[in-house]
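Thread: glycyl-adenosine-5'-phosphate complex, take 2
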Amino acid sequence: MSEEHFKNVISHSKEYGFVFPSSEIYDGLAAVYDYGQNGVELKKNIREYWWKSMVQLHENIVGLDASIFMAPKVWKASGHVDGFSDPMIDNKDSKKRYRADVLIEDYQEKYRVKNQKEITKARKRFGDDFDEAQFVATNPNIARNNAKIEEIDVKLKEGLETGQLDKVKALIEELGIACPVSGSRNWTDVRQFNLMYSTQMSATDGESQIYLRPETAQGIFVNYLNVQKTGRMRLPFGIAQTGKAFRNEIVARQFIMRMKEFEQMEMQFFVTPGEEKKWYDYWKEHRLKWHTNLGTDASKYRYHDHVKMAHYANAAVDIEYDFPFGFKEVEGIHSRTDFDLKQHEEFTGKKLQYFDNDKNESYVPYVVETSIGLDRMFLVLMCNALQNEDLGEGKSRTVLKLPAALAPYQCAVLPLTKNDGLPDMARKIIKGLSLDFNCYYEEKDSIGKRYRRQDAIGTPICVTVDHDSLTDDSVTIRFRDSMEQKRVKLSDLEDIITKEVSMKELLKGLV
Ligand code: GAP
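Output below.
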């Protein structure tokens, strides 16, 4: 995938009502976006797929909807007031600001690309006999590249974990990293910038500074005991939540990849201390399965273990997707220990413990978190789905091959003509189908043009009502991906569509 493809994704998203720049008639607001009529449906379906897979399919996970505003002390306790910052560096010539660790990670990526090239070359040379694992283990060029990546990892980790940002700057200089805009190596020092937005809340005793939550997770932690007690939950159990989070991303870029206002889908899984590794491995595997269950090529995903651990984690891994601009994080799985609950105990003076009947003792549970950005997942699906397909004889079509159950509309019902009672019959069909599916009705333009428009918004099935339908109680259904058309009885229509597009069919892949 190329930068060109990414540009197409952005323009397609706008042209077909998926994503618009925020306040566009006022020239927009940097790194803030609105979801249009099709985008909001796709987003809702991704959220539903996540919610059902986490809450509905796990008897020991329940939901929560906590407020965006929280007592300001929450963020002191969580460490966000003091520690939620990014190491930033400015290029003095372009005046552009970068995350210092991202500049270094992008540099490391070049060695990974080199390795991939070696593998591709060798695969061509050895053909069917190629043993990739053995090649990777023995090739001296790959060994050299990996050693370089490792060496950089160690230096970066040392600088970030000890807070010695001069070492991070020294590493940027040592690697000769240049500003992508000016091409110069004229850098400022590396400095930390806090990412939280704050505002004022009035109260009878004056005003206090409060924050817009930078993650949904804290809403779960502060409600841990409420849910545990009222739900009579026993370890291990999880609390899931979706909702908006806000971060003053200084380097906001790449469309909806990095936004100032975005939505998270998070789940905190509370476990007995000592069992966190087992559950970390479980969620690591289960969450990747959630992604590949959508039919995406598994080679487009990879795990990336963290070099810089967040202040609360003792193990962390990203699930990365191969975006047009390279592999980047979509989801994080963090083993957060008892850090958050203990901090809230300390700051409130209240016990947040669990009484373990089997052990006959109380303790603060450990937590394994899964955290995915809904907007980033939206971008994964758009990048993966958008295709320009060559149909031969100089013809082509633009098609959005979204997972059928997540598409904005599951089916379109199209009367072949605007008269002879065909629209009435089409509307009658929609009336029945729309109890289960989001259906699109359209009667304008030729049927070919209407099929193309449905392809472009990802509708998996078109149902065409023609003159024969009036007498034979049959319709033509046309499949988005194969473009195959077949005649089916009206009485079979609902079953056929259900099999192709229902969320239930998708969820079956996870049980
Ligand atoms: N509670 C843990 C936490 O918030 P994170 O890695 O900072 O962890 C989790 O964020 C996920 O939220 C990321 O994997 C990413 O998908 C999404 N995310 C984070 N910052 C974002 C931003 N500025 N814009 C869009 N999505 C973002």
